[in-house]
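Lecture notes, continued. The same structure-token format from the folding unit now serves as the input rather than the output. Read the line below as a description of shape only.
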């Protein structure tokens, strides 16, 4: 399994981070998970376009998780000589209105390239790879995504309340990619806004077999991290980081 971190920020993140956008590639399927602002140019810098992905998964309706799709489509139409291929735009079953809304904001001449589909907790199989959408707790309908091939299980949280045990009950993936929007002293705000604090995210070391990846960092967390040392099984990627497992 190969993971490409095109964007690692969230709303209010450092201006040096594109908003969250992660490519997950197995031998059977390639998924682009969320498409935040700024990720289109990061994709081009790494010689990717949307045509390199079989599915584009949108976790929820907040703009910093899908507003970069417009630019990414335009970049693909410019840089890929074949033009934009037929792309599948997917989310969980409660996000029907969301996907239609996203589609309506795309360039008119490229909308026909996007097909809407849904993934449930029962999952969809591509060869040896199973993909499941798992509903998490946020202020709007939101889905994390589990990707499991013959040897690796990965879970991406999207945005979620810091109710860790409820989200990960029965799951102990090899890799967890989890948001940490707020600092440890902002837990009350996290509960109100439906986000996770850094210390709550770090508790997930107990729920992961190999690697905990922290993304969607708020700018205050960037400053906070300078004063602490990360455990060995915790990784905070920069944009354009590639990880092979």
């Amino acid at each position: 399994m190969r993971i490409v971190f095109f964007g690692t920020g969230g709303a209010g993140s450092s201006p040096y981070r594109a908003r969250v956008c992660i490519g997950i590639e197995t031998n059977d399927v390639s998924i682009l998970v969320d498409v935040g602002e700024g990720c289109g140019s990061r994709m081009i810098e790494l010689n990717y376009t949307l045509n390199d992905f079989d599915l584009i998964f949108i976790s929820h309706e907040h703009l910093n998780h899908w507003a970069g799709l417009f630019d990414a489509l335009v970049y693909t139409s410019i840089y890929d000589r074949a033009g934009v291929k037929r792309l599948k735009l997917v989310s969980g079953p409660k996000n029907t209105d969301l996907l239609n809304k996203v589609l309506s904001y795309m360039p008119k001449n490229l909308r026909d390239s996007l097909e809407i589909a849904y993934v449930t907790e029962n999952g969809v199989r591509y060869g040896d790879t199973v993909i499941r959408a798992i509903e998490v707790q946020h202020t709007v309908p939101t889905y994390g995504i589990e990707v499991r091939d013959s040897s690796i299980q990965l879970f991406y949280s999207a945005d979620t309340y810091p109710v860790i045990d409820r989200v990960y009950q029965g799951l102990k993936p090899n890799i967890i990619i989890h948001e940490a929007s707020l600092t440890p002293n902002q837990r009350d705000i996290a509960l109100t806004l439906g986000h996770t604090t850094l210390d709550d995210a770090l508790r997930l070391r107990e729920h992961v077999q190999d690697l905990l990846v922290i993304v969607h960092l708020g700018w205050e967390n960037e400053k906070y991290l300078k004063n602490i040392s990360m455990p060995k099984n915790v990784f905070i990627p920069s944009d354009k980081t590639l990880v092979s497992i």
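Point for the exam: The helical segments are 39-45, 69-79, 96-104, 164-167, 187-193, 198-202, 219-225.
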